[in-house]
């Protein structure tokens, strides 16, 4: 097992390199980089709003073929344009910029944000509490609700309970998380009916003045609506997956044999079926966790005015803040690969018969 873990850890290196290289090439071809945005501001245009319009024709991401000047920068001093290039590191060829970035990433130096007065690491640490809060509690509640509910539906397959819960699950799945979030605001955050929950932020303004239990209560009071919106929009798939997985296992011969030996239903279910049925659930945990942790909460962060990693990454991509884009991409990918490895190792805890090392051999 140690050899398998070591090989998987080594595989992370080329995987990270390949992902960064592909995204670097794609971003270099995209119009409207930081140099062009700065030129647009100096020329009196809003690059973020106007994109690649006006005097920055076609986005201006490429250097004009005839001269060595950016499109839309004809009225600016060439020395000023060169200074802007040096400021953002674009005075070097793309290949050299990529290798400098890779060397810096080897010791986790993600550089300085182009448009925020902070390093990428500082920005990530600042936004992390929101994303951790949304991703952790949403995933935890989703699994605590979906797995028992899926097992109950499997044991009562075809009953009234199964039909009504399936109806509720389908309705919940059909409503997008952001739409459900708006509904919660209308109902419970002072929209039209009740004013029971706060509308924005992760904590109250007087959070530092509260007692320990007061801080805990305030924290979960602010999280109640956004976490509920995320859970409602994501637990349906896991519930049905759990149910179908258990139904598939219950119909197998070893379950019939266990029952024929006189084992109790709980012993059959949790001593034999549970271990095998949970393997497919564990397989989906890494993607579910990473999806909720980083990308799934973007609209929720916007609706509830929560400044987290999802919102920061989206804004950085729009503004072409390359250090933040690549820094967060590196961290998201690294964390995703590590969580995937942890998910594989959890297989062996649930079912010791699984041996990844012998399979690779």
Automatic annotation (TrEMBL):
<feature type="transmembrane region" description="Helical">
    <location>
        <begin position="130"/>
        <end position="151"/>
    </location>
</feature>
<protein>
    <recommendedName>
        <fullName>Inner membrane ABC transporter permease protein YejB</fullName>
    </recommendedName>
</protein>
<dbReference type="GO" id="GO:0042884">
    <property type="term" value="P:microcin transport"/>
</dbReference>
<feature type="transmembrane region" description="Helical">
    <location>
        <begin position="277"/>
        <end position="304"/>
    </location>
</feature>
<keyword id="KW-0472">Membrane</keyword>
<feature type="transmembrane region" description="Helical">
    <location>
        <begin position="163"/>
        <end position="189"/>
    </location>
</feature>
<keyword id="KW-1133">Transmembrane helix</keyword>
<dbReference type="InterPro" id="IPR000515">
    <property type="entry name" value="MetI-like"/>
</dbReference>
<keyword id="KW-1003">Cell membrane</keyword>
<comment type="similarity">
    <text>Belongs to the binding-protein-dependent transport system permease family.</text>
</comment>
<feature type="domain" description="ABC transmembrane type-1">
    <location>
        <begin position="128"/>
        <end position="343"/>
    </location>
</feature>
<keyword id="KW-0997">Cell inner membrane</keyword>
<keyword id="KW-0813">Transport</keyword>
<dbReference type="GO" id="GO:0055085">
    <property type="term" value="P:transmembrane transport"/>
</dbReference>
<comment type="function">
    <text>Probably part of a binding-protein-dependent transport system. Probably responsible for the translocation of the substrate across the membrane.</text>
</comment>
<dbReference type="Pfam" id="PF00528">
    <property type="entry name" value="BPD_transp_1"/>
</dbReference>
<dbReference type="GO" id="GO:0005886">
    <property type="term" value="C:plasma membrane"/>
</dbReference>
<feature type="transmembrane region" description="Helical">
    <location>
        <begin position="9"/>
        <end position="30"/>
    </location>
</feature>
<feature type="transmembrane region" description="Helical">
    <location>
        <begin position="219"/>
        <end position="242"/>
    </location>
</feature>
<dbReference type="InterPro" id="IPR035906">
    <property type="entry name" value="MetI-like_sf"/>
</dbReference>
<feature type="transmembrane region" description="Helical">
    <location>
        <begin position="324"/>
        <end position="343"/>
    </location>
</feature>
<keyword id="KW-0812">Transmembrane</keyword>
């Amino acid at each position: 097992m140690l050899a398998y873990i070591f090989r998987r850890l080594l595989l992370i290196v080329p995987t990270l390199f390949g992902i960064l290289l592909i995204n670097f090439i794609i971003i270099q071809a995209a119009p409207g980089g930081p140099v062009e945005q700065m030129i647009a501001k100096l020329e009196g245009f809003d690059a973020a709003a106007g994109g690649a319009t006006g005097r920055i024709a076609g986005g201006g991401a490429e250097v004009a073929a005839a001269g060595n000047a950016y499109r839309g920068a004809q009225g600016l001093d060439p020395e000023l344009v060169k200074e802007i290039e040096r400021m953002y590191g674009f005075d070097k060829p793309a290949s050299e910029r990529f290798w400098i970035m890779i060397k810096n990433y080897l010791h986790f130096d993600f550089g300085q944000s182009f448009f925020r007065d902070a390093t990428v690491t500082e920005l990530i640490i600042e936004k992390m509490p929101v994303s951790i809060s949304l991703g952790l509690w949403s995933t935890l509640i989703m699994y605590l609700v979906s797995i028992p509910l899926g097992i109950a539906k499997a044991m009562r397959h075809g009953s009234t309970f199964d039909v009504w819960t399936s109806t509720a699950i389908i309705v919940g799945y059909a409503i997008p998380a952001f739409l459900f979030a708006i509904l919660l605001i209308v109902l419970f955050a002072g929209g039209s009916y009740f004013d029971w929950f706060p509308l924005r932020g992760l904590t109250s303004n007087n959070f530092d003045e509260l007692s320990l239990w007061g801080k805990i209560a305030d924290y979960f009071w602010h999280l109640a609506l956004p976490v509920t919106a995320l859970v409602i929009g994501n637990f349906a798939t896991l519930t049905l997956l759990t149910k179908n997985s258990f139904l598939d296992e219950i119909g197998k011969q070893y379950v019939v044999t266990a029952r024929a030996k006189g084992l109790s239903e709980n012993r059959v279910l949790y001593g034999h079926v549970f271990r095998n049925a949970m393997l497919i659930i564990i397989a989906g945990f890494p993607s579910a966790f990473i999806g909720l942790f980083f990308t799934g909460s973007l609209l929720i962060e916007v609706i509830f005015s929560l400044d987290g990693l999802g919102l920061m990454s989206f804004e950085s991509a729009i503004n072409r803040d390359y250090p933040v884009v690549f820094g967060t991409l590196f961290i998201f990918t690294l964390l995703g690969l590590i969580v995937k490895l942890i998910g594989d190792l959890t297989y062996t805890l649930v079912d010791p018969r699984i041996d990844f090392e012998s399979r690779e051999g």
